[in-house]
Amino acid sequence: xxxxxxxxxxKYQILQKxxxxxxxxxxxxxxxxxxxxNLSESFARIKDGEVFLFNAHINPWMGSQKFSNERRQRKxxxxxxxxLAWQGKMAGGNLTLVPLSIYIKGNxxxxxLCLAKTKAKFDKRASLKxxxxxxxxxxELKARD
Length: 145
Prior knowledge:
Elements: E1 2-4, H1 6-11, E2 12-22, H2 28-33, E3 37-38, E4 43-47, E5 50-54, E6 57-58, E7 74-77, H3 80-92, E8 95-105, E9 108-118, H4 121-144
Antiparallel strand pairs: 1-8, 2-7, 2-9, 3-6, 4-5, 5-7, 8-9
Subcellular location: Cytoplasm
Protein name: SsrA-binding protein
Family: Belongs to the SmpB family.
């Protein structure tokens, strides 16, 4: 099961991607396996040399007795060199850390995190126009076959 952040590809220009582990508590892993999470308004920040995921909504598991905050900040596991490199890049420009997806790899939950730059309004329009043109070309090619 892969939980996607569809808005991220529309709102941001993706520069670099990295796979990060995520620190979860209790039954949150069961909710992710069931696909009961949402990344649409989530983002990541670097605080005190550590990366945290904010505003990611993971529904509480029905069978769990312990109630946890659905939108709490969750620590992401990255190498120190990666954190320092991204911190340097973010200090120099108008960049942000955006989660693209959460998925299960083996027995662990992973987050696909990217370094991204916000698209301007005309960039969004241009990418939508390119998508529609490519979609029309694909339809024409299928119709010929």
